[in-house]
Every structure is written in structure tokens, then in C-alpha cells.
Amino acid sequence: MTDTPAPTLDTSEDDVVEQKAVRMAKRERLIAERGDAAGGAYPVTVPVTDTIPALRERFGDLEAGAETDVTAAVAGRVVFSRNTGKLCFAALQSGDGSRIQAMVSLASVGDESLQRWKELVDLGDHVYVRGQVISSRRGELSIMVDDWAIASKALLPLPNLYSELSEESRVRSRYLDLIVRDQARQTVRARAKVNASLRQTFTAHDFIEVETPMLQIQHGGAAARPFVTHSNAFDAELYLRIAPELYLKRAAVGGIDRVFEINRNFRNEGADSTHSPEFAMLEAYQAYSDYNGIADLTQELVQNAAVAVAGSTTVTWADGTEYDLGGQWDRISMYGSLSAAAGVDITPQSSLADLEALAAANGVDEPSHPTHGKWVEELWEHFVKPGLSRPTFVMDFPVDTSPLVRDHRSIAGVVEKWDLYVRGFELATGYSELVDPVIQRERFVAQAKLAAAGDDEAMRIDEEFLRAMEHGMPPMGGMGMGIDRLLMAITGLGIRETILFPLVK
């Protein structure tokens, strides 16, 4: 519409209370008009025949002043209203943000109906209208109303449609954000397109989607602090899932050679622009592949998702910046790239003392429960991570930070693991999976010692998982990727914008 939505009245607390009282009185009037047998103030349903987006698609090119012989009935939320003597105008908005103008005239509905419209309809109400599809003299696609009804009344006023909601308001009241802001609606649809694209890509590669437990007797599959709860039925302490990995691998033992899950994970850790305590995760495992094959698949998954949302592997972020996700992505060695950036040769055999000295000389903070691997990763994040711009696979990690990963086939002291960095943050991780239960037990024991020493993120020994492995786990490549972060990479938004209803205090 060319008409700009009118701002709501001042939304101070006193004014909101006053507006609610006025609107409540209108609701009471609706109840009285419908009668006690009618079942309340609002109809159970309204007889719509069309949607606003469909009408815009069909009649969007009508010339100014043109009329059709089509009668349509639609419903939408009133986001603009202007009442004159014999003609009232309203903009009705659908869930996707599409709008159509409703024109309520004395000649079409009569004096009583026109007066009821003026007295009862407020900004924010859901309204049903039926009438002839036309284009107004100003070229607005419109319905010349011959019948209308309030489908549901907004008892509270909408936000001021002239000004942006603050980020905090958007997060806390996402329903309002979705009403007033195009970007919020677009992000919801982008997320749906991403999930559909991921599933399509997996289907093309013969993967099977499964579901694994969210409540677990023992947490595992990642180095993270879990949320703890209690089951009254089992009188047992349970953990919210930090990762589905150990269950998906059980599925692979059972013969589901290509398996994936899109799931919710929960980690009792900090929240910032790239982390949320509750988040969506994709994990996938492919038997008889390795970390190189799963890297190829991950690149395809991300690039296909970008095309599904943006129509191209070159995406445009919310701030207008273009970012190229196309082509073949770089693959660099963690130790090699760190040595080059630090100007010092760093290998899996470098001593803790040497790593600590390098960190102290460059102002790098000591990690909690420091080990060789944790020092190497802290130093890498200091020296190398800030310089990454293109999508990059960082390959070959220290063995002591990767207890579920196979030893490198040719380099001692590292494992076949990569992290994928996009936009400067970690988007995904992938492994050549450890499938030897004897070595896996040794790794679990080492992790248990760290846990006993106070490392809350260390894994515990999972006897049930080890028993599954002892029945024969095929060689495989595996990967995990945050869905919220994938949206961040494609849209340029922060994590609280890509999650529809993020956890807030």
C-alpha cells in the first residue's frame, strides 16, 4: 500500500490500560450482539475464499481505477485505518506481510454497518471482509466491501509502526516482531527453506532421518556441561541431550549406514552472539566414508541451503554485505596455520612449557584444565581465527581434545577432525569417526580422569555405547552443524534473531 500505517497512540503504561479498557468494552458489545448462544465475542471461523497473497499475485497489475467481476472474501490483521464520512479505508495484512486495502463505503454496506465499523474496528484486529476486487483511484489493490466481521479483537495496541522495535523487545515479544517487521517474517521462512534443503540433499545421497532421545541417562557426544533434571517415574537423574552422536552411531552399528537427525540440543553454558543454551543441531554419519568425504557433503549441504534461501551461493546479509559461499572451500592444517601465523614451529610434540610461554608473550588466557590440545586451540583462535574470511575447513586437531575421533592415518598426535569456519565463527565440525572400542574405552577413561579433576565438560564412560561398538561399528565420517548458525551464515543475523523464540531472562 502507498498509505503509510498510522502510528498507534502513545504506548505509556497508563495509555495501554486506557486503550485496553476501551477495547474490552467493544468486546462486551460484540458478545451482546452475538447473544449468549453464539459462543462468545468472535466467530469460530469465517468463510474466506481467498488469501491476500493469492489476490496480489492474481490482480497485482490492475490499473488504477480498474474493476473486476470477481468477489473475494479474505481475512487479515488491520495495520492501517482511516475513517472518513462515507468511506473507511483499512489495510489488512496476512501472515507473510502481504496487504490488501479494504474499502467500506456507505453505498456498499449501508449506514448501520458503516457506523459499526467506525465504532468497533481497531488497529490490530483480525477482520473478515467480502466484496468486489478493484483497484482504487490511487492504484491500491482493494476489496470494495459488502460484508464484514471482526474475527478477533486486539485488546492491546500494536507497537508504533513508524519505529523499529529494540532487539530486546523483538526477542521477548517475537509475535509483535513478526507482525511489524519484514525481516522477522523472512527469517522464519528462510529457516524453513534451509531445513527443507538439508533434507532434500540428504535424500539425494540416500540418508535416512531418525530421532534420538532428548532425555538421557548419561550425557555424551560432545564436550559440554549438561542440564540436569530428575525423573519421578524412574527415580533417576537424567540429562538433557548435549548431542545425538552416540545414539546415531548406535544406529550405524545396527545397519543404518547413512543416518542424520535435525534436533534440539541443550548445553548449560554461556549465551552470547553465537551461543544459545538451547539450539538446533544437524548431525550425520556416513559409513565407509571419512572426514574428507563428510567435508565434501557439508559444503554441498551449505551451498544448497544458500541457493534455497538466496537463489545463489552469493548471499546478501541483513546489513547489505555480500558473502560468497560458492566454489571449493579452503582446507588448512591447524598446526601448520598456527605455526605460520605465530612465527614459531608448533607440533603435536610441543611441550606445555613452550605453549604456555608463547601464550604469555601474546596475552592469551590460560584455558580451564589446560592440556596440550587446549593450549593449541586457544593459540590458534588468537593467531589464526581472526584472519579467516572465506569459508575454511581447519583440519587435524590435537588428540586430547577429540576423544571420539580416529587418529590421523599419517601424522602422530593428531586426529582426523575438521572445524568449518564461516563469517569468523565455527559453523560445523566433522570427523573420521573412532570405531575401535578398545581405543574408545581408553579415551573415555582419560576423559573420566579429567571429569574427576573438576572438568565439567569432560565425557564420562558410556558402557552401553561401548557395548554397541563391540558389536562392530563400520568406518565412517560424521559431522555436526548448528542450524541457527547456518542461518547466521546465510542471513548475517545474530543467533537470537535466527532462533524464533530464544531463551531470555
UniProtKB/TrEMBL annotation:
The prosthetic group or cofactor this protein requires is: Mg(2+)
- GO MF: ATP binding; lysine-tRNA ligase activity; magnesium ion binding; tRNA binding
Q: Where is the Aminoacyl-transfer RNA synthetases class-II family profile domain?
A: 191-502
| UniProtKB keywords | Aminoacyl-tRNA synthetase, ATP-binding, Cytoplasm, Ligase, Magnesium, Metal-binding, Nucleotide-binding, Protein biosynthesis
Q: Which Gene3D superfamilies match?
A: Bira Bifunctional Protein, Domain 2, Nucleic acid-binding proteins
How is the cofactor bound, in the record's words? Binds 3 Mg(2+) ions per subunit.
What is the designated name of this protein? Lysine--tRNA ligase
Naturally occurring in which organism (per UniProt):
Microbacterium protaetiae
